[in-house]
Amino acid sequence: MNRSELLASLAACVGERHVLTAPTDIAPYAVDWRRKYVGQAAAVVSPGSTAEVAAVLQLATAHRIPVVTQGGNTGMSGGATPDGTGTQIVLSTRRLNRIRQTDALNDTIEVEAGAVLEAVQVAASEVGRLFPLALAAQGSCTIGGNLATNAGGTAVLRYGNARDLTLGLEVVTPDGRIWNGLRGLRKDNTGYDLKQLYIGSEGTLGVITAAVLKLFPPPAARRTAMLTLPSIDNAVQLLNRVRADLGPALTAFEVISAACVPVLQRHFPEMRWPFETLVPVVALIEMSDHESEQHARDTLSFVLEQALEDEIATDGVIGESVAQSRALWALREHLSEAQAKEGPHIKHDISVPISRVAAFVDAAVKHVQLGFPGARMAWFGHLGDGNLHFNVLAPVGTDALAFCAGQGDVNRLVHDLVHAHSGSISAEHGLGQLRRDENARYKDGVELALMQGLKQALDPLGLMNPGKVLRPLSAG
Ligand code: FAD
Ligand code: MLT
Ligand code: ZN
Asked: Which residues of 74-97 are buried (b: 16+ CB within 10 A; e: fewer)?
């Protein structure tokens, strides 16, 4: 099938308007959010229904055309970017964005894969419920992308990650069959739990077209506090203490290292950092209270006072209003963008057992500093989940691109330490193309072989997002 036949066949599946072919139209879909990967695509196709997704995949299978599914294109591992051959098609889910139904009594919502996360949060709140998945990209990332990467974010500590929030899925298989697994059940032991295979599969097994997600009662009040701490060890101690004091009311426990602060201030000068002196670590704590605003405030004040009294923390502020709490969160949520504006840098998305976080950070800071003098260790992240973005920035005033040429060595050093601390080299962003080969270095051989077996069983022609997550079998 030549290109014009392909385009005509795709147009027959979804309508001509929904097939992009001009290089300028395709370009935004062929580069990732970080602008690290730039590919090419034969076309971008946007189906408007599950049946249209099925038609596109039937066509792809019949003519052996590789398909890269793309949601909001906010992924951090290059998973949604086509390769450079120009033979792959991008299947964009942006038109599959309906909220199909909410069932407040069952605490569930059924949405299409291209629904933007924030729209799902809003739809849940309109029926008096909370959909708790929350991340800084929520205004543009999609539920399909969230599920395909098993996204984490800032509320995992209390509500779990995308996997934990999913009850049912609708998936189109590579050969165009539709699996309707849209069950809103909290108990269902009728065989293999197939949805778990597709969650976190990064578009390599099939296209997720819809999902049934869990909802929760919204809290009566939310309060946020920011505390300054002398070390990461103190942060872990504080986490341990607030977990015991607040129990399930603790909804987030994030940390920000000192090196992040000047970068944030440089690129977002309008944001007010609440402390005068720069301290090694700041913790951002959020509690959700099912009693009242006053109860939330009193509880957090108690936590802060105790931490100061016991010299775990050195200072702290409590968001006195919703607006103040939002302002504290905004500081945390703009870290990634601020670092992107600072220039190319070396990212890590690691997790280790919480009991080993402090030892890992101390060792990683020491070793990176020894190997790369002056490098800025601008780490931050979700301490409550043992997940840190241990990002390494070039020394101030040096050529960031030249520094990033040493990325492989820095990754190796950090990831060897992660492995030595029984951790994971991709806690929440997925492998995509960024971490595929490194993962093969650390993952158990049997586990990798089982993963290859699943890929072979579910996508025998290797057409779904080839080259992501796993090396193509033919490439050895
Ligand atoms: P895309 O980037 O479009 O795709 C990601 C992967 O999913 C690709 O492999 C793609 O092929 C696959 N995919 C997409 N849709 C489907 C589908 N319907 N069916 C099958 N496969 C599909 N991530 C976190 O986990 N936690 C965070 O806190 C977090 N914060 C972020 C903050 C910022 C500022 C940014 C830019 C990103 C952040 N991310 C975070 C990463 C990213 O937002 C998430 O990975 C998100 O879940 C990706 O959704 P998306 O719709 O943009 O997916
Ligand atoms: C975050 O926690 O802000 C994200 O995962 C984004 C990032 O790591 O840059
Ligand atoms: Zn994160």
From this structure: bbbbbbbbbbeeeebbbbbbbebb
* Nearest of 43, 8, 54, 50 to residue 174 by alpha carbon: 54
d(CA 364, CA 372): 12
For residue range 398-431, what is the model confidence (pLDDT) as tens digits?
A: 999 999 999 999 999 999 999 999 999 999 999 9
C-alpha 105 – ligand 2 centre gap (Å): 34
Positive or negative torsion for Cα 18, 124, 381, 260: positive
What pLDDT does residue 475 have? Answer: 53
382 Cα nearest atom in ligand 2: 2
Beta bridge partners of 44: 20, 90
User: Would you state the structure tokens that stand for residue 393, as one six-digit string?
Assistant: 């920035």
* Ligand 1 mutation pick, 76, 116, 207, max ligand atoms within 8 A of CB: 76
Residue nearest to atom 8 of ligand 2 (CA): 389
Record the tokens describing residue 210, joined without a space.
Answer: 């819809």
Query: What is the per-residue pLDDT across 118-166, written as a single tens digit (0 to 9) for each?
Result: 999 999 999 999 999 999 999 999 999 999 999 999 999 999 999 999 9
* Tokens encoding 142: 């999609």
Nearest to 372 by CA among 351, 398, 352, 337: 398
Asked if residue 476 has pLDDT above 50, the reply is no
CA dist., res. 190 & res. 53, Å (int) = 27
* Ligand that lies nearest to the alpha carbon of residue 385, given by its number in the listed order: 3
The predicted-structure confidence for 40-69, as pLDDT tens digits, reads as follows 999 999 999 999 999 999 999 999 999 999
The 3-state DSSP class for residue 122 equals helix
Structure tokens at 312: 């775990």
Mean per-residue pLDDT over the chain, rounded = 97
Cα–ligand 2 centroid distance for 350 (angstroms): 11
Measuring CA to CA, how many Å separate 72 from each of 49, 116, 120, 247, 442?
A: 17, 8, 14, 34, 30
Tell me the pLDDT band of 233, cut-offs 50, 70 and 90. very high
Is residue 429 lining ligand 1, measured as CB closer than 6 Å? yes
CA distance 416 to 409: 10
Q: Is this model's pTM higher than 0.90 or not? A: yes
SS3 69: strand
- Cite the DSSP H helix spans in 192-284: 195-198, 232-246, 260-267
Lateral strand order in the sheet of 207-214: 99-103, 108-112, 207-214, 166-172, 178-181
